[in-house]
Write a structure and sequence with these properties.
Elements: H1 3-7, H2 11-16, H3 19-23, H4 26-46, H5 55-80, H6 88-103, H7 110-133, H8 139-157, H9 171-174, E1 176-177, E2 180-181, H10 182-200, H11 202-212, H12 214-219, H13 224-250, H14 257-260, H15 263-273, H16 285-305, H17 309-340
Antiparallel strand pairs: 1-2
Helix pairs in contact: 4-16, 5-10, 5-11, 5-13, 5-15, 5-16, 6-7, 6-8, 6-13, 7-8, 7-13, 10-11, 11-13, 15-16
Length: about 350
């Protein structure tokens, strides 16, 4: 369902919904779940004589959320159009290397390094979008193919970290205001800008429309190809920003910094946890940030409790499946109620 269709739901259908269901949206649900997780996590960590939400704990959560949040913001845009991007993890590594090698430890090369990394990221996104729209390739296969190309390039040309980020630029990765990293504030600024773009601009509305029903959008005169390509370019630019940020933290580029963290699947998980439909057309950045914070909080709690890595993955999988099942059940109930009214 497109945003335009959502905004024109029959007044009677909206009015007959119980008040609790009208305000209990997926975004509200994900933040309620986040608060509940923080409470439960604080109790569990407290039983060990430690504090989850002290300055160090908050710093850990926000630091984990920054990189994943940037990738997930871009992933939200492509998923809203009914697509997805599996190349982001390798692209994060590639852009970290491009930025670090271009900077080469010189302050005067920071801006060229950042611009070149973002330009390459945008180019990869353009390729993804064109393969999907012009060659009619499935988004899963197309972006997986691009990911394999990037992996091949990285494996052929790099055996470990490369490049040198000047010390001045490393402030981006480590400076903070109290317990809040400056980079986390920049990530939130990107999130607000993305929210504005999706909810307050015509191009953003068009992304929802394409995700809701691409054929209806096409027949309505929307440039569906351009919209999907734009979403993929923006997604890749977000991955490029992540690579630049991680280079500032590491002091150099790292070919597998994105894949080691699993940013491809992790970003999709965060988007889905935030209530965005994988089929597209419904969701948004606000919920995605909530999903990112849930995953970052889970990781921090597990580390404090020294949980086995296998159990970590099991719990994360259960959380994701449960969230998807609840959203699906809620949507099914809404559709049934709509047919009865």
């Amino acid at each position: 369902m497109s945003t335009l269709q959502e905004n024109t739901l029959p007044v009677r259908q909206q009015a007959t919904r119980p008040a609790a269901q009208r305000w209990l949206t997926p975004v509200v649900i994900v933040y309620i779940a986040l608060v509940a997780l923080l409470v439960v996590g604080s109790v569990l960590v407290g039983l060990r004589g430690e504090v989850l939400l002290d300055q160090g704990g908050i710093l850990n959560i926000l630091t984990r959320a920054t990189a994943l949040g940037l990738v997930a913001i871009g992933q939200t845009m492509v998923i809203l159009t009914g697509s997805l991007d599996l190349s982001v993890a390798y692209l994060v590594g590639l852009t970290s290397l491009i930025a670090a090698e271009t900077m080469a430890g010189r302050d005067g090369m920071v801006v060229p390094g950042v611009l070149l990394a973002l330009a390459v990221a945008a180019g990869v996104g353009l390729v993804n979008g064109l393969v999907i729209t012009v060659l009619k390739a499935n988004a899963f296969i197309a972006t997986l193919g691009v990911a394999l190309i990037l992996r091949g390039y990285l494996e052929e040309n790099y055996t470990g970290p490369a490049g040198d980020v000047p010390r001045g630029f490393q402030h981006l990765g480590y400076d903070r205001i109290g317990p809040v990293p400056v980079a986390a504030l920049l990530m939130l600024a990107v999130a607000v800008l993305s929210w504005w773009y999706l909810s307050r601009t015509r191009s953003g509305y068009h992304m929802y429309a394409v995700g809701g029903d691409i054929e209806v959008a096409r027949l309505s005169g929307l440039p569906t190809r351009r919209i999907i390509v734009t979403a993929h370019v923006l997604c890749s630019v977000a991955a490029g920003l992540t690579g630049i940020y991680l280079a500032s933290r590491l002091g150099s580029g790292a070919p597998y910094v994105g894949t080691d963290a699993g940013y491809d699947l992790e970003s999709i998980a965060a988007v889905v946890l935030g209530g965005t439909l994988l089929a597209g057309g419904r969701g948004g950045v606000a919920g995605t940030i909530g999903g990112v914070l849930i995953l970052a909080t889970l990781d921090t709690i597990f580390d404090d409790l020294e949980v086995d890595p296998f159990f970590k993955d099991v719990v994360r999988g259960v959380v994701l499946v449960t969230a998807v099942a609840l959203y699906a059940r809620r949507m099914s109930a809404n559709r049934t109620r709509g047919r009865l009214t």
